[in-house]
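Supplementary Methods S3. Input chains for the assembly prediction are listed below.
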Amino acid sequence: MTTLTRADWEQRARDLKIEGRAYINGEYTDAVSGETFECISPVDGRLLGKIASCDAADAQRAVDNARATFNSGVWSRLAPTKRKATMIRFAGLLKQHAEELALLETLDMGKPISDSLYIDVPGAAQALSWSGEAIDKIYDEVAATPHDQLGLVTREPVGVVGAIVPWNFPLMMACWKLGPALSTGNSVILKPSEKSPLTAIRIAALAVEAGIPKGVLNVLPGYGHTVGKALALHNDVDTLVFTGSTKIAKQLLIYSGESNMKRVWLEAGGKSPNIVFADAPDLQAAAEAAAGAIAFNQGEVCTAGSRLLVERSIKDKFLPLVIEALKTWKPGNPLDPATNVGALVDTQQMNTVLAYIESGHTDGAKLVAGGKRILQETGGTYVEPTIFDGVSNAMKIAQEEIFGPVLSVITFDSAEEAIQIANDTPYGLAAAVWTADISKAHLTAKALRAGSVWVNQYDGGDMTAPFGGFKQSGNGRDKSLHAFDKYTELKATWIKL
Ligand code: NAD
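Predicted structure tokens for the full assembly:
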């Protein structure tokens, strides 16, 4: 636990120098147009600074530099052992600057400082070092060829990678991409969300300090429809990796088809079912996990357990436990180390969440917890963790990703019905099952169309296992060695002996 108090963090926030410029070829630089946009903190509505509003001209500069650096071989052809050492140094610098990065993250997107410091920054550093550590332990293949042939199956970096990331875990999502993209030798252009650009801008300089050659990692802050689109349509970007909404993910596939058919890997939205059977081994633990699954990170989590499916026979006993558990998740000032729910990222997102709450009422669901904006006097954007009971899976609040702390409780009578409801969504990111029956656990897990399934827990996982979605939650996987597939091309070389 940090020894810093809220007053300490507030003092540091006042002293903080905000860097808002783009980072191209190892230097901070204004947008070519000179345009900027305002970075407003959701903590209290304060202006944090002006951010470079990059567009196609900046994308062109960054791509040119990234391409030149890639072709020079200064990073792409460096021995994997050396890339490994550099990535580990890069991760070390994130840890060394943990407090500064955590503060930037919290001020920028409103999450609790304790989460930023103990989850986001270490998770981001781990993504860099894990991928770096792996890169000199992966071997290529020799094919089972006839005697007079030698068939080499090798992996090569794809070249220039455009990485477009969201605002809910700005640093961690960026590093899930940067870890494998950089470790495999690519040059990268990172486009953070316009709602949370600060940590991405900061770590660009740390990468160079770690020894990653200038031009290998470039960061372009700006809007999606300007610089994001320019990258996605650029004919010299080889691969686009994306985390964000399903709506924009679909748009990127179109941009790829309209340009150079760049590879597009998508980590998109979710509407994850959390299924609690009557024979769950520990209802109290299940209730606490259900509350955390919707309140953690203000519900702004792609894998949020936003649909709680409860077997009818235990509903009346179980729901009060969840309501009670949710009381421990209280929105408060994110700079207070004791706060576990912060502000929603901005006014727009808050209004979206409040509109979904309104739609729950209109559709006839029963509000049993929360439901209101609070702490308005702070100037920040805070919404109470909210539960609707009596939700049918056809309702808007059960079908659409709210991306806020709003839980829909749906009742079922059999495993078949639970699976049918769970899969009745365009998404397929994650799911959880609570049961003491090992066969039921396995059979349900197999039947769930989701990239991650948790049994008797919610939201487990680390760098060792792949993460990503079925259906419209995306394609490809972040984390684990499987992530390397996105950043490498397979080459078959046939040598006549
Ligand atoms: P978003 O799709 O609105 O934006 C994501 C990024 O795309 C931003 O950087 C944005 O500027 C950019 N963008 C927007 N329009 C663009 C365009 N036309 N061309 C190119 N880029 C464009 O998503 P968001 O609101 O930032 O993030 C929330 C979403 O992210 C949720 O749907 C959530 O589920 C998803 N998410 C998924 C995962 C996962 O691993 N599957 C993880 C975290 C978040």
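The domain at 273-462 is CATH 3.40.309.10 (Aldehyde Dehydrogenase; Chain A, domain 2). Residues 164-168, 173, 191, 193-194, 223-225, 228-229, 232, 243-245, 248, 251, 267-270, 302, 401, 403, 429, 469, 473-474 surround nicotinamide-adenine-dinucleotide (CB under 6 Å).
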